[in-house]
Automatic annotation (TrEMBL):
Classification via Pfam families: UvrD-helicase, UvrD_C
Family: Belongs to the helicase family. UvrD subfamily.
Enzyme nomenclature, EC number: 5.6.2.4
Any coiled-coil regions, as ranges: none
Catalytic activity line of the entry: Couples ATP hydrolysis with the unwinding of duplex DNA by translocating in the 3'-5' direction; ATP + H2O = ADP + phosphate + H(+)
Keyword entries, A-Z: ATP-binding, DNA-binding, Helicase, Hydrolase, Isomerase, Nucleotide-binding
Domain UvrD-like helicase C-terminal: 280-539
Taxonomic source organism: Laceyella sacchari (Thermoactinomyces thalpophilus)
Full protein name: DNA 3'-5' helicase
Top-level taxonomic group: Bacteria
UniProt-annotated stretches for the region Disordered: 603-624
Residues holding ATP: 30-37
Length: 712
């Protein structure tokens, strides 16, 4: 086979046309699985085959992993010439350019350092320093920088935005104090260099051919640089799919791709219409979804005629059942991805995989749910309960809720006193010198409450920390002070409450969290089961895909919709694209799961489920029809109750009027009848109810708390 035959082998006519398109600005627009990345790789080989020196090519990929894969594929075919190719992300290629042009690039802050800097800045302001908060702020800073917006140019009015600008400024000055750059500074520097004609002209000639994968996710600064680099020779070859643009929150915008002919009027557009990845059924389903987006370029989409099952819906009762159901399928060893909108959602599946000792891989950069700061706070209480000498834990929670112990002298005094009086730091606290009566009161309460945690099951202990000890109160005041969204602050704790159900006591929960972290650290990249966010799944493919937690508020995610009215429609469409990206990763099986409850509360399915034709008729893969009907009949007001016994804590009330003789529906025990409500009838804080369930030997006690849905 000649070189040319080889590089065109196995391609269809459209793909061949793309690979061999005349040299000049070319854009391949095509749907998922149509061979864009394949064509791009072959185009490189084609150019080399045409005698173009390898060092004149610049090949841009979206991730480092993709660059590595691309290089490996090319090396297999043309090992000698591939070495000289410039393959990488925008960041890595631009960095190379800066260095080669003699620019003294200061040391770069990696993600870990950026995180550390942001963490310090947040800590100085007494703000939470967990990964999610840190990455939210870093993303926002990235969004600004990728649009070329410097802190001084930010218009701010709301408290939240003032806080952001302050952090952005502090972040920038912290960087220059340390004499460092972040990766976005590379883009800005190259952008600035492009204004110097000599510099620009050098690089225009050096990289005669520019090729870009996933072009739909390019941002303003990157785009402007690219246009300048390609302006002279106009050898630009890009592939992308506007329907898969999912990084709008970092500044990427598919309009740069759709309007590429504005800067390159002679643009050749090539369309690939055959999806080689997925079955006809899956192509049709994803098409049905994405059709709802208004701002998109319609593309022809055909399959290869391979048939398979329809999209499968799961409607488990809750996250735990969702995880269990998925695990029963995994025994077949099929290559599987479990995808989700936010990493918290992976908690139940990860827990179940760890418990069942099934090897799995979590995409790098996603850390354990148990590292969330609220969870770590609750864990600090539990640690203290089992080890009254755990000073770190004590320091962590001493003012959560406020106990007004700010001057750090108490730490030494407490140690000294504990040593003298026999051990427990907690016991030593209220006896410290110079305390005000209110401080003594708070500290005595803490001393009495914490040891009680050892007598409870893990779920009760978590609830006790939140409700009685007052951790929820702390979060409420924290939300007020920082203008944060309270529901988001509570979310990890609601999730923790579910996780805790599996453990006889807090110590068991702590040990499990440690085991999860250990497994994540030693995550097995070759395992057939892979977990990742929808974002990270871009460009990849798997035999079977699960998308879990398809709920309203989750997809579209409520936080991504907290934007100005005029941006709402766009944000909504980006969330739809995210689901589309997830669904189109599947080759043969795609499972969409909508549990009936999430973190103990009844939740509506994602509006996208309806667009996919789900929801008219409710299906359940597990709940017997009888139980389902019963649930629907009774559930007018849904609330979860925390059993004082070790019972499962899910209760549904038929109405807010809770009185003896009325029936309640328990998710596991079925319909029971209320024996007693004390002191008064009704769902209200502090009321206790006694419920008898048929088939249970004992009646069960529940106590209702301040909030419906969070009962202790
Ligand atoms: P995405 O939009 O998800 O990034 P893509 O358009 O880049 O997808 P590829 O990843 O290049 O698509 O290809 C999808 C799958 O189809 C791959 O497994 C690839 O090997 C296969 N494929 C591509 N073209 C052909 C072809 N002509 N014949 C058979 N298989 C093909
Ligand atoms: Mg691709």
């Amino acid at each position: 086979m000649s070189g040319m035959e080889m590089l065109l082998s196995g391609l269809n006519d459209e793909q061949r046309k793309a690979v061999t398109a005349p040299i000049g600005p070319t854009a391949v627009f095509a749907g998922p699985g149509s061979g864009k990345t394949t064509v791009l790789t072959r185009r490189v080989l084609y150019l080399l085959e045409q005698g173009i020196p390898a060092n004149q090519l610049m090949l841009v990929t979206f991730t480092r992993a993709a660059a590595r894969e691309m290089r490996e594929r090319l090396e297999q075919v043309m090992p000698a010439r591939t070495r000289e190719l410039a393959v990488g992300t925008f960041h890595s290629l631009f960095l190379q350019m800066l260095r080669e042009s003699g620019c003294n690039v200061p040391p770069l802050m990696g993600q870990a350092e950026q995180t550390a800097v942001m963490r310090d800045l947040l800590a100085e302001r007494e703000l939470p320093t967990d990964e999610e908060t840190v990455s939210t702020y870093l993303n926002q800073i990235g969004l600004c920088k990728n649009n070329g917006i410097l802190p001084a140019r930010l218009r701010v009015e709301k408290q939240k935005n003032i806080l952001f600008r302050d952090l952005y400024m502090a972040y920038e000055s912290m960087k220059s104090e340390r004499g460092m750059w972040d990766y976005d500074d590379i883009l800005l520097a190259v952008h600035a260099c492009c204004r110097q004609s000599e510099w620009l002209s050098h690089w225009q000639t050096k990289f005669l051919h520019i090729l870009v994968d996933e072009f739909q996710d390019i941002n303003r600064v990157q785009y402007e640089i690219l246009v300048k680099l390609a302006a002279k020779h106009r050898h630009l070859f890009v592939v992308g799919d506007d329907d898969q643009s999912i990084y709008g929150f970092r500044g990427s915008d598919p309009k740069f791709m759709l309007e590429l002919n504005k800067d390159f009027p002679e643009l050749t557009r090539i369309i690939l219409s055959v999806n080689y990845r997925s079955t006809e059924e899956l192509i049709q389903a994803s098409e049905q979804l994405i059709r709802h987006n208004r701002r998109r370029q319609r593309k022809p989409r055909a399959g290869t005629g391979v048939r398979g099952p329809d999209v499968k819906w799961m409607e488990p009762l809750d996250e735990e059942e969702e995880a269990e159901q998925i695990l029963t399928h995994l025994t077949d060893g099929m290559e599987t991805a479990i995808l989700y909108r936010t990493s918290t959602q992976a908690r139940a599946v990860v827990d179940a995989l760890v418990r069942k000792r099934i090897p799995f891989m979590v995409a790098s950069g996603e850390s354990s749910f148990y590292r969330r700061w609220q969870v770590q706070d609750v864990f600090a209480y539990l640690k203290l309960a089992w080890n009254s000498q755990d000073l770190d834990a004590l320091v962590r929670i001493i003012n959560k809720p406020k106990r007004y112990l700010y001057n750090e002298d108490w730490i030494d005094a407490c140690w000294a006193r504990a040593k003298k009086h026999g051990g427990s730091l907690l016991a030593a606290l209220p006896g410290l010198d110079g305390l005000e009566p209110y401080q003594i009161r708070y500290l005595s309460e803490l001393r009495d409450q914490v040891p009680r945690l050892t007598e409870m099951n893990a779920e009760e202990a978590v609830a006790y920390i939140r409700e009685r000890i007052g951790y929820d109160r702390y979060l409420e005041s924290f939300a007020k002070e920082t203008g944060s969204d309270l529901a988001s602050l509570f979310e990890p704790l609601d999730e923790l409450a579910l996780a805790a159900r599996h453990f006889a006591n807090g110590q068991g929960l702590l040990a499990h969290a440690q085991e999860v972290e250990r497994q994540l650290r030693h995550s097995d990249a070759t395992a057939p089961v892979k977990l990742m966010t929808l974002h990270r799944s871009k460009g990849l493919e798997f035999d079977r895909v699960y998308i879990i937690g398809l709920h309203a508020m989750v997809l579209p995610h409520h936080r991504s919709l907290q934007v100005s009215e005029q941006r709402k429609a766009a944000a909504w469409e980006e969330e739809r694209r995210l689901l589309y990206v997830g669904m189109t990763r599947a080759k043969t099986e795609c499972w969409l799961s909508v549990s009936q409850t999430r973190q103990g509360k009844r939740v509506a399915p994602s509006p996208f489920a309806k667009e996919l034709g789900h929801g008219g008729e409710r299906m359940s893969t597990s709940a017997p029809l009888e139980r389902k009907r019963e649930l629907e009949r009774t559930a007018q007001v849904f609330t979860s109750a925390r059993a004082m016994s070790k019972a499962q804590p899910q209760l549904r009330f038929a109405s807010e009027e809770v009185a003896p003789g009325m029936s309640v529906n328990h998710i596991r025990f079925g319909v029971g009848s209320i024996v007693e409500v004390t002191p008064l009838a009704g769902v209200a804080p502090g009321r206790k109810i006694l419920v008898r369930f048929p088939g249970q030997t004992q009646s069960l006690h529940y106590e209702l708390s301040r909030q419906l849905g969070l009962l202790s």
